[in-house]
Amino acid sequence: MPNGQAGPTTIGDAAFAKISALAKEEAGLILPTSKVTMVQSRLRTRLAATGLTTYEAYAKFVSSPEGAAERRMMISSLTTNVSHFFRENHHFEILRNAVIPRLLARAKSGQPVRIWSAGCSSGQEPYSIAMTLLDAAPDFAGLDTLILATDIDTRILEKAEAGTYSAQQITGVPEALRGKFLKCTDPDTYTVTADVKRMVRFRELNLLHDWPMRTRFDVIFCRNVVIYFDTATQDSLWPRFEAALQPDGWFFLGHSERISEASQTRFSSVGMTAYQPVATSPQTTTA
Ligand SMILES: C[S@@+](CC[C@H](N)C(=O)[O-])C[C@H]1O[C@@H](n2cnc3c(N)ncnc32)[C@H](O)[C@@H]1O
Q1: 185 and 127 in one domain?
Q2: For the chain, which has fewer Cβ within 10 Å, the N-terminal or C-terminal residue?
Q3: What tens digit of pLDDT does each residue of 212-230 get?
């Protein structure tokens, strides 16, 4: 454990600059100076956990090779994990009405169906996808259908995998689906059913790094994730998402996210922040 120096418990300019540069380099996260108070409060527990007493000492430690494990904890503390069941419900309507009939036909003809929730946070997004699939067609449970749910933050992935939520957290789940897909396991605790869990695989994945998946996805949800990245990072991701999608796949972004002008030729808009690859795009490459 490194020895910190005694000092004020407010973050100085140099420490903030070091930490924000690391957050961008490691995870693409943009932390402008307007976020200084947020960074200070989110990292306070990390100072306590490492036994360091100043942000300067902490910034130095996480920048060093010995600080690699703590760097991951720092990124986990700096990510924003807010999520809800059936968030931006218009995407689940598109999924149910336009996408699922095609996916079901594909699965019934023996082809795999693959959906990716990129930046899945605490699991509400992939579980909402699984509930929508199973509600529309219970047959999906016996077909080759999988939802890959990835996030950079391993601590939030543990919560996601548990699939346990408070009464307040499940308010977004439509009444008709609650009885089917959530079990009340304690007075204020609801757990997603085994059928729903079986459809989802959680994995750690940093979107800035290589994507090891060799399959193309029928649907990709990457919502409320790239909003934390700058334009250059976002621009580096659009062609990769296009390459990771089936030519007739679907791509959903968060309500305040847009594909940059330079990449707009790759995708057609097919609804509110809903896209499909332009089939004839000459830039199409394989994953
Ligand atoms: C606000 S949550 C969005 C959750 C969900 N998609 C939704 O819309 O409700 C953003 C998630 O993106 C993840 N994230 C941030 N940077 C990432 C990166 N470089 N690679 C993968 N995930 C990242 C965060 O850990 C966080 O869980």
Answers
A1: yes
A2: N
A3: 999 999 999 999 999 999 9
Q: Is the CB of 223 under 6 A from ligand 1?
A: yes
Q: Which listed residue (46, 71, 106, 151) is catalytic?
A: 151
| pLDDT above 50 for 282 | no
Instruction: Give the CATH number of the domain where residue 179 resides.
Output: 3.40.50.150
How many whole angstroms from its chain centre is CA 118?
4
Pairwise CA distance, residues 181 & 130, whole Å = 10
Alpha carbon nearest to ligand 1 atom 16, residue: 27
Residue 214 appears among annotated catalytic residues: no
Q: Which of 42, 96, 216, 258 is catalytic?
A: 42
Question: What percentage of the chain has pLDDT greater than the value 90?
Answer: 91
Closest residue CA from atom 3 of ligand 1 = 224
Give residue 273 CA to ligand 1 midpoint distance, Å: 17
176 in a structural domain: yes
Q: How far away, in angstroms, is 230 Cα from ligand 1 center?
A: 14
Beta strands in the chain (DSSP E): 113-118, 145-151, 164-166, 182-186, 189-192, 200-204, 217-222, 245-253, 267-271, 274-277
